[in-house]
């Protein structure tokens, strides 16, 4: 027969063990809640589940955007959605088939989405168009374009017949890469906040930006004003805080000229109205 001290010790050990187990369960629950949280949390790296509707609508949103007046060459486009955790969620093309647009642009569109996602936060959006001057010699982000290379195995794996479909081999993987010209924009949901990014490629980089902007608007994921999101263009145009900026002037000794803001983008050839069009893009919500 156990003495009283033994019984108390045994009972105490069980109570402590139970308390530790409950604490671990609570911690695990908190971690799961954080991972399932939304962009307003500032650090929640949500996955493709938050972008299910957008993924289903990407092709239509891209086609409608491409059909608008965007300047450039009026080429067909590739578009990619990336979630906050860097996973590719959807890939689509606007043309009749995968061969209707530049094939290289498929991976570049994913690279743009990865960049906008990776360099934006819940309170501040940075488009790939805003990086052009900053990454050049003398810029505040010089050399950034050489970091975080594209995962070539993810980029080129699988059967090409699935490119741009719901079975695109990039989907479900992290593509990586940094792109520094127009066409990548962060996505902001009305209630969930920052949930990922869209990347578009297939034309001049100026036209790419315009098409990406319209694609984001068509997806209904441009709630920057509602979410209190700023950008490098926010002071000049609060309705378009992450818009492309054309403020580069030619300066002796500078190969690409000098950007007044430090975040300017080069003019594109042919322009065909792309610069003018950028000033009339749909205001963010």
List its salient traits.
Beta-Lactamase; 11% strand; alpha+beta; four-stranded antiparallel β-sheet; 31% helix; 2 domains
Model description:
This protein is of the alpha+beta class. It has two domains: 4-35; 41-278, Haem-degrading domain (Beta-Lactamase), CATH 3.30.450. 31% of the residues lie in helices and 11% in strands. The chain contains six helices and six strands, in the order ααββααββαββα. It has helices at 4-35, 52-66, 104-119, 152-156, 205-219, 274-278; strands at residues 78-83, 88-93, 184-189, 193-201, 248-249, 258-259. The strands form two sheets. A four-stranded antiparallel β-sheet has the order 2-1-4-3. A hairpin with an 8-residue loop joins β5 and β6 (258-259). It is globular and about 50 Å long. The relative contact order is 0.17.
Short description:
The protein is α+β, with helices and mostly antiparallel strands and 285 residues long.
The percentage of residues in β strands lies in 5-15%
* Structural class computed from helices and strand pairing: alpha+beta
| CATH fold descriptor of the largest domain | Beta-Lactamase
Largest sheet: 4 strands, antiparallel
Helix content: 25-40%
Any chance you could write out the topology, listing elements then pairs?
Elements: H1 4-35, H2 52-66, E1 78-83, E2 88-93, H3 104-119, H4 152-156, E3 184-189, E4 193-201, H5 205-219, E5 248-249, E6 258-259, H6 274-278
Antiparallel strand pairs: 1-2, 1-4, 3-4, 5-6
Helix pairs in contact: 2-5
